[in-house]
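Appendix B, Record 12. Input sequence as logged:
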Amino acid sequence: MSSGWDLSEGHYDPRRILTEEDLNDIFSCLFSNKSKNTTSYKFGFLKSILDNLYNVDINLSLSFNAIFSKFAESYWNLVLVHKLKQCRGASSGKIYDILHEAWNNLPENKGRLENNNVIPFESLSAEVQVKIISNVTKECSKYVVGAIYSDSKGNFYSFSKKSKTITLNPVVYQYLLRHKTMIEKVNYFEWAKFLHDVNESSSNDYLESLDYSTKRNNLDAYRKILFEEFEHRCFYCGAPLMDDRNTHVDHFIPWSFVKDDKLWNFVLACSRCNESKNNKLPPRDKIEKIVDRNRIILDRRASDSLIDTRTYTDETIPHLYKVAAINGFNFVWNCV
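Logged structural output:
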């Protein structure tokens, strides 16, 4: 299949039976020299799909907006916060230009990027975020979506630039779930190699920069909602939580696996439990408890974007728990 960056749409063949070898080849190709690699965008695109695996709808579809929201946030941090070049050669790339223009247009910044006080993407106004995501989506939908489709020989997903969606091949989707952690690590490794090649400095911890490029620092909105409306005791040990300022927000399924911030995956915890649990799965007997808690949240805040009722169901947490264990998160923490 020839280069597909200029295709307006593409469709996987549901009749084709993909073997495990075929599936391995899809990603081997993406990480090989067969896939053109003048920018890091294919790594960012794959990362954004992996980060959105649990946001697909019943048809396994994702909007361009969902994908490139993650993409824009990652690149804001990589390009502006960590100052990492993402293109080979002299060109800085269109994404670089979009982000720098957005930064320079912030009234309070007055175009001075050298002050090293770049605010996190999450702290930008909603209006600024929407504009950045729109510009990034326009650029990447033009050059990235069709190219990766072509690199996978049309087996990864279907896409339409008209409807602005991709629909994952169900067989590929299940493969991604089974091997998410492994694919994520390989993608990070290859991305870090690329960054090392195109950036002059060799002192950067590229892997750490990539891993935390979409991790939110400010969870106050979630803490406030949970404390004021739903929880006043530690979700795990039951200790009273006196005020929201000294209360920890914990990812029930570890962030390092989910790579997303959703109200349905957050609980409030005392400092002892939160620090002890760290990157481990919670006890299995807490699954039913959080599912019940989330039913209450859905009843009260069904229209809230923080809960995202379009993709969350009672099966989401049990399914994530099972898939996380398959991906190596098999050490279960117990509150004592």
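Residues 9-211 form one domain.
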